[in-house]
Structure formats: structure tokens, C-alpha cells
């Protein structure tokens, strides 16, 4: 899990059962498992193998369902999600590099 603020930590905590996710999203267990199989969603597995989802996963599933309804294919969705992830990683890397350069600059001045 990426670093998240304490305030938003609950969004990413995997505690919701698949039945509750079905109720929240209107999706069937079969649909949710299909999205998992297509590598669009990544639940954790509890001790007995039960899937556990986060509120962030619920939002992602709703987004997936809406885009699928609009005719988007799972392969297109996966590519879109990978691009978003890559952009987030690039942004974090750029931020760390800038902080490092600023630290080096100000430490050199002392």
C-alpha cells in the first residue's frame, strides 16, 4: 500500500466482505471475481481465504462497472489503470528528487 495520510487510511484498509461490496455496488459476486481475474481489482485474502476489500476498491469497482457499461473492454481498463499508476509513481519520484535537490542545496550553504 502506498503511503497515505492518517486521515485517509480508512479508505485503503481491506476490511469489507464481498457480500457487502455487492450490496454497495450493485455488482454480483461473479462480476467482482471476474474483475479480479482480469487484474482490475486486488482484494486481500483473510485467514479462511475470504476476499476483503477497501472503500477505495469499492470506488474502483463502481468506476469499472460504469466504464464497462459504456462499452470499454477490460484490457483497455487495465491499460488505463496502469497508466494512472505509472503517472502517480513518476510524480512521487519527481517530488522525492526535488526534495533531495533542495536538501542538498540548503545543506551545502550551511
UniProtKB/TrEMBL annotation:
Q: Write down what this protein is called.
A: MerR family transcriptional regulator
Family annotation (PROSITE patterns): HTH_MERR_2
Q: What InterPro entries is this protein classified in? A: DNA-bd_dom_put_sf (IPR009061), MerR-type_HTH_dom (IPR000551), MerR_fam (IPR047057)
Q: Which organism is it from?
A: Sporolactobacillus shoreae
Q: Which GO terms describe its molecular function?
A: DNA binding; DNA-binding transcription factor activity
Q: Which PANTHER family match?
A: HTH-TYPE TRANSCRIPTIONAL REGULATOR TNRA, REDOX-CYCLING DRUG-SENSING TRANSCRIPTIONAL ACTIVATOR SOXR
| Cross-referenced Pfam families | MerR_1
Question: Where does the source fall among the domains of life?
Answer: Bacteria
Domain HTH merR-type, first and last residues per copy: 15-83
Does Ubl conjugation show up as a keyword for this record?
no
Q: Which keywords label this protein? A: DNA-binding, Repressor, Transcription, Transcription regulation
UniProt keyword Secreted present: no
